[in-house]
Amino acid sequence: MYASSEINIGNTSLGGNSPVRIQSMTTTKTMDTVATVNQVANLAKAGCDFVRITTQNINEANNLKVIKEELGKIGIYIPLIADVHFIPKIAELAAQFVEKVRINPGNYIDSQSSISEKLIPLLSVCKKHNTAIRIGVNHGSLSETILYKYGNTALGMVESLMEFVRVCKKHNFNKLVLSVKASNVVMMIDANKLLVEKLLIEGLNYPIHLGVTEAGSEDEGRVKSASGIGYLLAHGIGDTIRVSLSEDPVAEIPVAKMLVDFYGKRLDIAKRIPHELIRVAIKFFSGKPPLVLTSGMSELADYSNHNESINLDIGKKKYGISKLVYHNLSIEELIIRATVDATILLLNNETDGIWIENNSSTTDDQNAKLSLEILQVLGLRISKTEFIACPTCGRSSVVLVDLLQEVKKQTSHIRGLKIAVMGCSVNGPGEMADADYGMVGTGNGNVDLYKGRKLIHKNIKQEQSIDALINLIKNSGDWKNK
Question: For the sheet containing 437-443, what is the strand order?
Answer without folding.
Answer: 386-389, 418-422, 437-443, 446-451, 454-461
